[in-house]
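RECORD TYPE: protein structure
NAME: DUF2249 domain-containing protein
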Amino acid sequence: MTEAATAAPEYTAHPFDARGIARRFRHSAIFGALGALQPGEAMRFVNDHDPLPLLAQLEERFGQRLEILYLQREPGAIVIDFIIRA
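PREDICTED:
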């Protein structure tokens, strides 16, 4: 996991707001959305809490293919870009 750099990203991030998805469906929806991305694409994840258990699951499932980049990390306001590497 890395913190956001100041330069503009070299990818377009598809928005994914987890706050509007029922909790019991969130992880499945996130796995499905990430699985649909092609190398070089990204998903901009927005949530009201830091999803640390989810991040561990994503790292286990995707390994080095997934870059996790925090853009905002404040209580009640989390924004993360999940980038699929080639």
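COMMENT: The first helix runs from residue 23 to 35.
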